[in-house]
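pinging the channel bc i need a second pair of eyes. not urgent but kinda urgent?? the chain im working w is below, pasted from the shared doc
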Amino acid sequence: MNSQTDLVSLPETTNHSQFVEWLRSVAPYIHAFRNKTFVVAFGGELVKEGGLNALVQDLALLHAMGMQIVLVHGSRPQVEEQLQLHRVVSEFALGMRITDLRALEAAKEAAGEVRLDIEAAISQGLPNTPMAHARISIISGNFVTARPVGILEGVDFQHTGVVRKIDADSLRQSLSSRKMVLLSPLGFSPTGEAFNLSMEDVASSVAIALRADKLIFLTEMPGIADEEGELRRELSLEEAQQIHETMLPESDEASYLKHAIRSCRGGVPRAHMVPYSLDGSVLLELFLHDGVGTMISYENLESLREASSDDVGGILQLIEPLEVDGTLVRRGRHQIERDIDHFSVIEHDGVLFGCAALYPYPQDRIGEMACLTVAPEAQGSGDGERLLKRIEQRARARGLTRIFVLTTRTEHWFLKRGFVKASVEDLPEDRRRFYNFQRRSLVLMKQL
């Protein structure tokens, strides 16, 4: 066996074809994410619980793939340790720490301690570890200008601050020179004062200033759950705002969600909340189609919506060419009008560029996604992906656990997005009776 083969050792039980298939499946994400900017933020709890090395190894892998990483750390438990050492009692009000001079010194000491731990982890390069051959330069600096919170409801927060400005130009220069940037929860005023900031404030402010492609919070919780305790894998901005209004404002969950919403409103397309207790959660969130946490997405709510009777003509115009070439089953105006409530559409400037329909079979807890169509001039822009996500959301909202499609020409598109091959016998009985054996459509199914 040559030395190059020795670089990747697979367990004897590993199926080589499965490994190759997996590697190929993540390649589109690697291409899509190259040169993208990700802000990754985590609290000092991750460091305290021993998760730093694994996270750094995953971030080094992303860096090697060409992704630009800004790392923002917190240090709350480390600040508490410093204060306890000096027998100082922490003071809080309105969900924020009151930072007097002693607490400010503790914040500086804690931030320095965590920053050194991170820099040491990034600098490791032992052979036979994921950090072997990793050559990562990391830079920190006075990129964050802050101002005092001031006096709120009669409480003087002293040296507790909020972000005033981010030096985005300097950050971009560092990132473009292939450096990873590390930011601490501290900021400085033009007069030279230091302020204790929240990690969430720094992370969201940086993501907005850089127009980052993603903001990823590594959190103590698995994500945002619904009333039944089920994980919500994706939330629109409107849904996230509604959920945030029901939360206790001083909870950690509310703080993460507040700043995720803030970043999306500020132009960041995606904000993620993923659990740091799950090994490799950042990689799983990025490279698995459905991820492992909760994603909040900025969405022009007027462009992706449920169809109305006014959309019948636009839908017919979209699907007619695909009906002519046999890709779609023919549907007349009467059928579209009858089924319009099943459709979702994408609209840009009053013109429909995509549509898809969900036909539920509640007794089987399964639904059929049909008529997925994107106009030729909009293909490749992600509209098909957005429509699929919307249909999945609608299916989950109706209590469905699976969706299926019948296709003759787009098998691979669906397989890349989590569908698996099934048979006609797997269809609901009501749908099986109307299966057209002459078309010989493939049945593809996906668990929700």
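so Confidence is low (pLDDT under 50) at residues 1-7. and The first strand starts at residue 37 and ends at 42. — does that match what u expected or am i reading it wrong
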